[in-house]
Write a structure and sequence with these properties.
34% of the residues lie in helices and 20% in strands. The chain is of the alpha/beta class and 480 residues long. α4 runs parallel beside α5. The structure holds ligand BES and zinc ion (2 copies). Ligand BES binds next to α12.
């Protein structure tokens, strides 16, 4: 159950914890009716993300640090919201004096949205499969404030966070439970609830659509594949059309090029790209975005059954190109190849794919950054801008054509791994590029690092992060 967020003009009488967000410059110089000495002694300086719960005359109250007012940004508020959601877990009704720190000057709609996102993302827990969890008491947060800007900030945050938490739930579900069929069911339900149309291809239709990459990866599995296509059409016809493609490997064992048990242990996360696409699309109608968006999700696990694709096998992708599979663990690019080919046929104005694609990208950028590659400077710049604004970190990598020779195959049009040990994120990007039709601006986000948290970071708990949802929503909002 998600917590309820309300906007109220005054602090509600039944509030059990009253929270005062405070900048460190105000904390040092002022008028608050609190015992600052004791607070200081406990180490509280109103730094960003610091919280201290104390008592004042009217009951429990918390001070929530925002750092220096001149240095704040949206992320400051998002972080404050996350910290509060965790610290206030044991209070049922909480109120927050948000209006005291925001104004037109620091963009109240954005700040309120970021703070509410922090609350809703911070309150997230994946407890479906636990039998003895202590239920969270926190059920309502009343944000003290008023006006259209604050209320729209809260509304937007509700839609974006719902999308993020949906993606997290999908990533957190075990691979044996979230099969391609189960994923497609969630997509179907989401489509119904959030005004999207959906087309689900089963095995016969996937064969008919000549998706040799998806079929090749699925060959070692006892679970049938699915290909989900979602579409959002705004009420007023729009000129712009965006295609989103998400890697949907519901579990990656590596196929016959089997992973180590250590390497496999988090591979339920390998549909993080598809989860981010679904999470994003779930929010489009709520946010009344004016552009057309189509989502493509190729879904299968990558197993090693008796008829699994063998190293050396050649697959034919939907666009007719043949691929020599020399490592069955480089499977993401095979299913994406089909999806990118299909997406290209609709001639959208841009294609963005998201994929937990390479360990190499994690080696290069670590856990907190996605790798961005692509063919169009404007598109990449718009994604970098959205990254800046949302705090979902993205770092651009080059796609030098000179590396293309590393993908040359003796027997087919291309092979699915590069020949050398280096630049694996880039050779994967160059492989994908072959399946995007000439002239369509395309960007690829390798989210292998940030999609899944081995340890908590930023606003994320351990496990699925929902990375990409907020980034894409911000990108779509400004897509020109
Ligand atoms: N799903 C993995 C990539 C991955 C690794 C995602 C770690 C998240 C965390 C992908 O399918 C894979 O196995 N890639 C190989 C490619 C290699 C065989 C060229 C890799 O990165 O080792
Ligand atoms: Zn793999
Ligand atoms: Zn994979």
């Amino acid at each position: 159950m998600s917590i309820e967020i309300k906007l109220t003009a005054k602090k509600p009488a039944r509030s059990e914890l009253h929270v005062i967000p405070i900048h460190s410059d105000r904390f040092t110089s002022d008028d608050l009716e609190i015992d600052k000495k004791t607070l200081r002694a406990s180490g509280f300086e109103a730094d960003p993300g610091q919280i201290s719960i104390t008592q004042n005359q009217s009951g429990p109250c918390a001070l929530l640090g925002l750092g220096e007012s001149s240095k704040e940004d949206n992320e400051t508020y998002r972080k404050a919201g996350t910290v509060l959601a965790k610290a206030a877990k044991g209070f049922k009704q909480v109120s927050v004096e948000l209006q005291s720190v925001i104004s037109i000057e620091n963009n109240e709609a954005e700040r309120t949205q970021a703070f509410t996102e922090g609350l809703l993302m911070g309150a997230y827990e994946y407890i479906e499969l636990k039998s003895d969890t202590k239920p969270r008491k926190l059920s309502t947060v009343s944000i003290v404030g008023s006006g259209r800007k604050m209320s729209s900030g809260i509304q937007r945050a509700k839609s974006t966070s719902r999308g993020v938490n949906l993606a997290r739930d999908l990533v957190n579900r075990p691979g044996g439970d979230l099969t391609p069929v189960a994923f497609a069911k969630v997509a179907s339900k989401t489509a119904k609830e959030h005004g999207l149309s959906i087309k689900i291809l089963g095995l016969p239709e996937i064969k008919k659509a000549k998706m040799g990459g998806l079929l090749g990866v699925n060959r070692g599995s006892s679970q049938p594949p699915r290909f989900v296509q979602l579409s959002y059409r705004p009420p007023k016809p729009s000129k712009k059309h965006l295609a989103l493609v998400g890697k949907g490997i519901t579990f990656d064992a590596g196929g016959l090029s089997i992973k180590t048990s250590q390497g496999m242990s988090t591979m339920k996360c390998d549909m993080g790209g598809a989860a981010a696409v679904l999470g994003t699309m779930s929010a489009l109608a709520d946010l009344s975005f004016p552009i057309r968006v189509t989502g493509y999700m190729p879904l299968t696990d990558n197993m090693l059954g008796g008829d699994a694709t063998r190293p050396g096998d050649v697959l034919k992708i939907r666009n007719g190109k043949t691929v020599e599979v020399l490592n069955t663990d480089a499977e993401g690019r095979l299913v994406l190849a089909d999806a990118l080919s299909l997406a290209s046929e609709a001639k959208p104005d841009a294609i963005i794919d998201l994929a937990t694609l390479t360990g190499a990208c994690m080696v290069a950028l670590g856990n907190e950054y996605a790798g961005l590659m692509g063919t169009d400077t404007d598109l990449a710049d718009q994604l970098l801008q959205a990254s800046e604004e949302t705090g979902e970190n993205v770092w651009q990598l080059p796609l030098p054509t000179s590396y293309r020779s590393q993908l040359e195959s003796e027997v087919a049009d291309i092979k699915n791994i590069g020949s050398g040990p280096y630049g694996g994120a880039i050779t994967a990007g160059l492989f994908l590029k072959e399946f995007v039709a000439e002239g369509i601006p395309w960007a690829h986000l390798d989210i292998a690092g940030p999609a899944f948290a081995d340890a908590p970071w930023g606003n994320h708990p351990k496990g699925g992060t929902g990375f990409g949802v907020r980034l894409l929503l911000r990108f779509i909002e400004d897509f020109k």
